[in-house]
Specification:
- The radius of gyration is 20 Å and the shape is globular.
- With about 290 residues, it is an alpha/beta fold.
- Helix content is about 35%, strand content about 30%.
Length: about 290
């Protein structure tokens, strides 16, 4: 679908980068802003700008209706979500397509599929990648009973719909598992609206390796290299090093091959990040960020 005007549904540095690139490619640009960002640099740098609501993100940058209305009023033919806010919202991607807009990002069904770590793990396995041994299940008591015999300790409790370290707990002994599951479930429900958890074997020697991929939606996928994101605080990346100098050549090769295979499996469209845990020459799929 052809378009000549792009609305950037974000703010700050990410919006400015998208706006600059769009302008360089010859597109007209539209910025959106809340009351708190009326005088922000990204507003001045767009060809046109439109208010989408009050300062609270829930009433502005997270309001699908407000963003679609802005696109309609200013004649945008496409929407770029940037990252954060609605960038990984399948509902937003579907709403854009239903409104006749080009969503500059992955297909809605792929966003939805990869947003749940349990489904993403199964897909990665189908694509030939290895995953960290884990146990899944809706009943926390039954889940706890399987951890020791099946994966052992230390173990890592994770939210199925999680991200950013929320709904995550490291457990080093059996007595701490039930409280960790209860606390992580409450946190996951509050943060993501979904209390589902799984428990993964914890590999303390592993390094956090990421691969950037780009696909055209037909199954053709390229990788753009790797990076080491092991320096973290509270499960949030602090330093990213590219290429990942601490990983072995064999681990790098396996990560690059697995990342492209996983993305090709879903006929991925747009840019994305596939995350792995590298231990020695082996890599284990963790998740995929569809942005």
């Amino acid at each position: 679908m052809a378009f000549d005007t792009l609305l950037v549904a974000n703010r700050g540095a990410v919006a400015r980068r998208v706006l600059r690139t769009a302008r360089r490619l010859g597109f007209r640009t539209v910025a959106v802003y809340s009351d708190a960002d009326r005088d922000a640099p990204h507003v001045a740098e767009a060809d046109r700008a439109v208010r989408i609501g009050p300062a609270a993100a829930a009433d502005s940058y997270l309001s699908i209706d407000a963003i679609l209305d802005a696109a309609r009023r200013l004649g945008a033919g496409a929407v770029h979500p940037g990252y954060g806010f609605l960038a990984e919202s399948a509902a937003f991607a579907r709403a854009c397509e239903a409104a006749g807009l080009v969503f500059v990002g992955p297909q809605p069904e792929v966003i939805e599929l990869m947003s749940r770590k349990d489904r993403a793990r199964r897909l990665a396995t189908e694509a030939g990648a290895t995953v960290v041994p884990a146990v899944e299940g809706e009943d926390f008591r039954a889940l706890a009973a399987r951890v020791g015999p099946e994966i052992g300790y230390p173990a890592l409790v994770k939210a199925v719909a999680g991200g950013g370290g929320r709904g995550m707990r490291l457990v080093t002994r059996p007595a701490d598992l039930a409280p960790a599951l209860a606390a992580a479930g409450r946190e996951a429900l509050a943060a993501f609206g979904d209390p589902a958890l799984f428990v993964e074997r914890y590999l303390p020697e592993g390094r956090h390796l990421e691969v950037q991929v780009v696909g055209d939606g037909t199954g053709r996928v390229l990788h753009l290299g790797d990076r080491d994101c092991s320096v973290q605080r509270r499960h949030q990346k602090v330093v990213e090093e590219a290429p990942a100098s601490a990983c072995s050549p064999a681990a790098r090769a396996r990560a690059l091959e697995a990342a492209t295979a996983i993305a090709a499996r879903v006929r991925y469209r747009s840019l994305g990040t596939v995350e792995f845990l590298a231990a020695g020459d082996h890599v284990h799929f963790l998740e995929m960020n569809t942005r």
